[in-house]
């Protein structure tokens, strides 16, 4: 098979590493890719939103499977465009990707089908939102309705903070058109857990659990980011919680989308909060999470192409997902100043130290080739992932491996996975 992956971050590198292991795959392409992906695939200088160019390239190269990984092209309908050209695509169509593309849609879906989530209200005007906040309980959560690179969620501790956030989102357009509508949500407390799942329109098969660390600084301080590190599995995600989620969240979500005429095929990411009253859905994503993918896929035993084709063909019920009985931790190496302002173009040293090591991975996110070698080219630069027999060993291995790599203005959190110390 010839496979084309759309995207160029750490998630796409992790997917590429899994895809290239498949016995079904002869040639692998990635658009646009990055320096790490370029070591195992042919990178093509086409942007993820250049739909016509992607379609032309896929037809010219006779691509057998296109994997659409990022949220923007999915929500904008890349899958629909490619399918109309006769291509096989892994990733939901536009009318299903709305589950991530609009938080108001997903909240309304959960309310209609009695899927447990936080109480909320939706607003189209800043004035109405501020009036509602006058009588609200704090802390409270404000969410830009549309896509905001994982940064459109603000937790506000008091009325003034919340009104400032409304202004930033709806009037100052901090997140662009994503802030045209606003969801104001009850603040939930508990442990956060991410569960990724394969879906074929009717059957859902969940992957192993993970936990992300969104804030930029140690101790969950600072601004929200795209994710500073993850661990898998979550020791807080018990068999009892899993049974509840399967019955009241996972399958009901798939069934709800089908009932709405929005058949979902691809990956649904469930962001959960394990509250005292039981699990609640914080968010849905219509694709693999980043950096959750970097700790989940390295532990998956299945041929990922076989699983993806089963999703496309509605035969996921014939697949038994299997994961290694171990653990993995990913620590993101970022550019100092991320997610606000940072410098790029610094040479990265030490990448060769990951070669030939089965339990260590260096997933490239913001990198590119230059005359002087591989250089930094983004806020999140690398995802250093390591396995271990348990979470504590995996964490120690991952942090040890972060020292193998160096670049100017390298920054990371030092407490990824610290929550496991409470177990």
Automatic annotation (TrEMBL):
Offer an example of a GO molecular function term for this protein: ATP binding
Output the InterPro entries linked to this UniProt entry. Answer: ATP-grasp (IPR011761), ATP_grasp_subdomain_1 (IPR013815), PreATP-grasp_dom_sf (IPR016185), PRibGlycinamid_synth_ATP-grasp (IPR020561), PRibGlycinamide_synth (IPR000115), PRibGlycinamide_synth_C-dom (IPR020560), PRibGlycinamide_synth_C_sf (IPR037123), PRibGlycinamide_synth_CS (IPR020559)
Question: SUPFAM superfamilies recorded for this chain?
Answer: Glutathione synthetase ATP-binding domain-like (SSF56059), PreATP-grasp domain (SSF52440), Rudiment single hybrid motif (SSF51246)
Biological process terms in GO annotation = 'de novo' IMP biosynthetic process; purine nucleobase biosynthetic process
What residues form the membrane-spanning segments? Answer: none
Quote the pathway field.
Purine metabolism; IMP biosynthesis via de novo pathway; N(1)-(5-phospho-D-ribosyl)glycinamide from 5-phospho-alpha-D-ribose 1-diphosphate: step 2/2
Q: For this UniProt record, give its keywords in alphabetical order, as a comma-separated list.
A: ATP-binding, Ligase, Manganese, Metal-binding, Nucleotide-binding, Purine biosynthesis
Q: Which cofactor does it need?
A: Mg(2+); Mn(2+)
A Pfam cross-reference name: GARS_N
Q: Where is the ATP-grasp domain?
A: 107-313
Q: Known catalysed reaction(s)? A: 5-phospho-beta-D-ribosylamine + glycine + ATP = N(1)-(5-phospho-beta-D-ribosyl)glycinamide + ADP + phosphate + H(+)
Its Enzyme Commission number(s) read 6.3.4.13
User: NCBIfam families, from UniProt?
Assistant: purD
Q: Which family does it belong to?
A: Belongs to the GARS family.
Q: Cross-referenced HAMAP family, in alphabetical order? A: GARS
Q: What is this protein called?
A: Phosphoribosylamine--glycine ligase
User: Mind giving the lineage of the organism this protein is from?
Assistant: Bacteria, Bacillati, Bacillota, Clostridia, Lachnospirales
**What gene codes for this chain?**
purD
């Amino acid at each position: 098979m010839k496979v084309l992956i759309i995207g160029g971050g750490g998630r796409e590198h992790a997917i590429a590493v899994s895809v290239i292991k498949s016995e079904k795959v002869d040639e692998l392409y990635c658009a646009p890719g990055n320096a790490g992906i370029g070591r195992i695939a042919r990178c093509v200088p086409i942007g993820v939103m250049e739909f016509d160019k992607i379609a032309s390239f896929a037809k010219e190269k006779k691509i057998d499977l296109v994997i659409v990984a990022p949220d923007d092209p999915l929500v904008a309908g890349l899958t629909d465009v490619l399918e109309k050209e006769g291509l096989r695509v892994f990733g939901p169509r536009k009318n299903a990707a709305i589950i991530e593309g609009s938080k108001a849609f997903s909240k309304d879906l959960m309310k209609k089908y009695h899927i447990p989530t936080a109480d909320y209200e939706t607003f189209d005007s800043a004035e109405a939102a501020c009036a509602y906040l006058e009588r609200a309980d704090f802390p409270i959560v404000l969410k830009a309705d549309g896509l905001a690179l994982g940064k459109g969620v603000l937790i506000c501790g008091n009325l003034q903070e919340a009104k400032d956030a409304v202004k930033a989102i709806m009037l100052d357009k901090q997140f662009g058109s994503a802030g045209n509508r606003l969801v104001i949500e009850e603040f939930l407390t508990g442990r956060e857990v991410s569960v990724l799942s394969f879906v074929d329109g009717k059957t859902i098969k969940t992957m192993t659990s993970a936990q992300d660390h969104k804030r930029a600084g140690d101790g969950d301080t600072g601004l929200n980011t795209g994710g500073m590190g993850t661990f898998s599995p979550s020791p807080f995600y018990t068999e009892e919680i899993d049974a509840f989620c399967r019955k009241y969240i996972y399958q009901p979500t798939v069934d709800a989308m089908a009932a709405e005429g929005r058949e979902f095929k691809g990956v649904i990411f469930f962001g959960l909060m394990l509250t005292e009253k039981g699990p609640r859905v914080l968010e849905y994503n219509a694709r693999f999470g980043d950096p959750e993918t970097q700790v989940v896929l390295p532990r998956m035993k299945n041929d990922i192409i076989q699983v993806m084709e089963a999703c496309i063909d509605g035969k996921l019920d014939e697949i038994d997902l299997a994961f290694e009985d171990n653990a993995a931790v990913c620590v993101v190496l970022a550019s100092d100043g991320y997610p606000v302002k940072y410098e790029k173009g610094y040479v990265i040293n030490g990448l060769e130290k990951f070669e030939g090591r089965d339990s260590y991975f260096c997933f490239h996110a913001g990198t590119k080739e230059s005359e002087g070698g591989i250089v930094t080219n983004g806020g999140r630069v690398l995802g250093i992932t390591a396995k271990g027999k348990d979470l504590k060993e995996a964490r120690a291995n991952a942090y040890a491996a972060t020292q193998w790599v160096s670049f100017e203005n390298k920054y990371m959190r030092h407490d990824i996975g610290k929550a496991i110390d409470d177990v």
